[in-house]
Amino acid sequence: MIRIGTVELGKKPVVVLSIDGGEEDKLDYARRLGVNLIEVRGDLVISKGVDLSGLNRVLDLIGDYGFYSVLTLRPEWEGGKLNCSEEERLQLFEKLVKHPSVGAVDVELRASILSDVRELAKREGKVLIVSYHDFEKTPPAEEIGGIFRRAVEAGADIVKLAFYGNSLSDVSRVCCVMNSIDYPKVFMVMGAVGKMTRVVGFHFGSLMTYTFLGKSVAPGQIPLEELKNLLEKFYNC
User: Alpha helices, DSSP H only, in the chain?
Assistant: First the structure.
């Protein structure tokens, strides 16, 4: 069983709220609605002109509200906002991963610093999420399986896959492949056609679903209150 901080994955749907700053009203609302984890999109925070000390204050505030976080520093080349060298990004990871409110770190399968971040996460006792995003399409089933295997071989504690859905067949293909793989995973099909995967994905082994307050950070995300209502209907939680 995998835990991110004190949050146990796999027993029930785990809701992750993605944030791009340290707004106390969002964290208070998230706590009242039963959000389990916070994803700190550090790249979005930095893109607003916040420096390292300010990002640490965001992590402090998350801890003050009783949450553990998933730290994400998504580069521009994989849909994020961070525009720096990989060496500079690794330095940010090194300075932030040790924060006590960070329970997991998300790094891309295609990142040249993946092995460094893996060792950093292992040394600090954090869960390593290895992610892969395709914002244009959903590949064939064999390719999806190959991407997943590469992430496992890279040392992922959890594999996170996100593909863009252009048809319902894309949705069914991803769900079928994911259902056949017995390994800790998070997946979603981005875009309007794949919205359902953010709710029904748990039936196919997905451990977490990501949501937002205000402005979404990925195509097809479902707002927090709507997502909680859907999860209550599907899973009584």
Answer: 24-32, 42-47, 52-64, 86-96, 114-124, 141-153, 168-179, 197-200, 224-235
Give the Cα-Cα-Cα angle 27, 32, 35 (nearest 5 degrees).
65
Active site residue 133: yes
Average predicted confidence (pLDDT) for the chain: 96
- Predicted confidence (pLDDT) per residue in 142-173, tens digit: 999 999 999 999 999 999 999 999 999 999 99
Give the span between the Cα atoms of 199 and 94, in whole angstroms.
34
Distance CA 113, CA 111 (A): 5
Catalytic residue chosen out of the listed positions 160, 185, 195, 228 = 160
- DSSP category for residue 221: P
Angle 105-83-106 from CA coordinates, rounded to 5°: 10
DSSP 216: -
Sign of CA dihedral 151, 154, 159, 164: negative
Query: Is residue 99 annotated as part of the catalytic site, yes or no?
Result: no
Binding site, annotated residues for 3-dehydroquinate:
18, 39-41, 74, 198, 221
Burial of 222 from C-beta contacts in 10 A (0-12 / 13-18 / 19+) = buried
Residue count of the chain: 237
Question: β-strands 37-41, 7-8: how paired?
Answer: unpaired
pTM: 0.96
Closest by CA position to 78, among listed 52, 108, 99, 98: 108
Q: Among all chains, which residue has been given the structure tokens 């997502």?
A: 227
Q: What topology is assigned to 3-231 in CATH?
A: TIM Barrel (3.20.20)
Domain borders along the chain are 3-231
